[in-house]
Every structure is written in C-alpha cells, then in structure tokens.
# Entry
Amino acid sequence: MSTTADLRPHRGRFAPSPTGPLHLGSLVAAMGSYLQSRHHGGEWLLRIEDLDSPREVEGASGWIINSLESHGFEWDQEITWQSERSKLYERALMHLGKTGRLFACRCSRRTLRESGSAGRGTPAYPGTCRHLGLRDQSGMSLRFLTRPGDVCFEDALQGRICEDVARECGDFVVRRKDGLFAYQLAVVVDDASQMIGEVVRGCDLLESTPRQIQLQQALDLPAPAYIHLPLVVARNDEKISKQNGAAGLDDARALGNLIAAHRLLGQEPAKEKDFDSVADFWAWAVPRWDLKPLLGRRKIAAAGAEVN
Ligand SMILES: [Zn+2]
# Structure
C-alpha cells in the first residue's frame, strides 16, 4: 500500500468523533491545530471520525460542524467522513495480511482481562492467537502483529517519546469483533491518504502514536510530524470530555469561547471587546501563534476559564 505522494508540510486536520457537541477541550484542540497550520500558511482539513456507529450520537456531526462554523473555522477541501472510506481500510488490512502482519483473534474480553497485565492501563495482549493461524470468521477480531523494540518519535512539544509497542500494548486490534475498523487503523490510513504533514492533537493520544507509527511502517506510509497539545483538565485533574459531561459550547458566545480557549493555550491575552467578530479574532491570532508557552506541558487547568 505504498504511496509515492509526499505529505504536505503544515497541512493539519481536526478529526472529531460525533459522540456529542463540541466542548471547551475539543475547541482548544481544534484551535491549536488550526493556528499551527494557518500560522505556517498550511491547509487545514476537517474529518469526521464516524466509524464507531454504536457510540455515535444522532445529530452530533451537525452540531460539531455548525459549532466550528460559528467559531469562524474555515477548512480546505470537502469534509471527510470515515464511514465512506471502508475500501481504503479494507485495502490496508489486505496489505497487512499479505505481509504477515495480521491474524485473527478469538479471545474474549474476559480471557484477556484474566491474562494479567504487562503494560500500563489495559493489559497487553498476551499473543494467545498469534500463531494459531485461525481463519477470519464472524465474531473474531483482526490484530496487527507488532514487532519488539522501541518505537520513538520527536514531538514538537513533548520531546522524544518512545514505546516498546509489542511489550506495552501487544498486538492490537485493527478490525473489531463487530466488523468495524479500529481507530488506530483508520487514523493512520486517513492521515496518509490526506497527506497530513503535521498531526496536532491532545496528549491523550500520545501513547497511541508509537502504535500508529509501527502501523505506518508496516503499511509503507510516511510518518507526519506530531504535536501533542496539553489536555484541558477539570478540578479533579480529569480530562474534560464528553464522557464526563463537559458542557457543549454555546455558539452564540463564540467570540468569548475563542478567547477562553486561546488563553488556555498560553497565548497573548485578549479581551472580547477588542474584536468586532470571530473573523477579526482569527486575523489577530493567526500571526501571533506561538508554541513556546506549551513546551513540555501535558495539562492545562480549565478552572477560571470563562466558557459558555
Ligand atoms: Zn486472541
């Protein structure tokens, strides 16, 4: 599945899943990625990651798109919908299969849980079905056969990050039991096919990156540059997210929301009365974007941010 196309430098993207409205944490991620691209004269694409239909919330894609428009984001090209790209993911699976990097797995969640943990968080896959040569049937997942050794990359904000993917995570799922393509596969295929030169996203995905890089290498795809932004956390230090009930943004208060997000990103402070419109805000913010205040930061406290 080799591609001869080069990645476009500073072409970035925002890739929300339609599981709820845009909230402050996602606005900060979208803004960081947008400013990084636009500041460097790069393009910025919008991709809706609507692969996980069971988790999807009816109407959420529309809310997200409206919210981004109200906040003055402008994307290049048509919006990409992952649900329309199954052929690309299927082709990637075929490539992995042909090169011996794919196997069918029949393990249940329970057997995996009981197998104990070698890695952080969730247990690493113990390799149970790795060499069984099972035939892919309904109800089975497909796993990517990882290789041992550190996978490292240089993050523009977080420095050098390394992970022994085989040890920490083990062979991971690229097509789920329910037949859906897994996030790790889709994101790697999409970033390459859209020639994303720079992936700017939250630190919650930092640990996924070495996995994605090993998958890119197996698929002969080029690796983009990575910038992992600090996560906006609530008082309890938890990432604010749709899952813990972060409030959706009020689009009627777009300018105020932009200013709050901009402040959380450590940028030059601004006041709402300084701007006539959201366009006016962006025209001011784009040339001033600076990554330095975010160097090495993994978290930003949301406390005190006035958001609506
Ligand atoms: Zn298994």
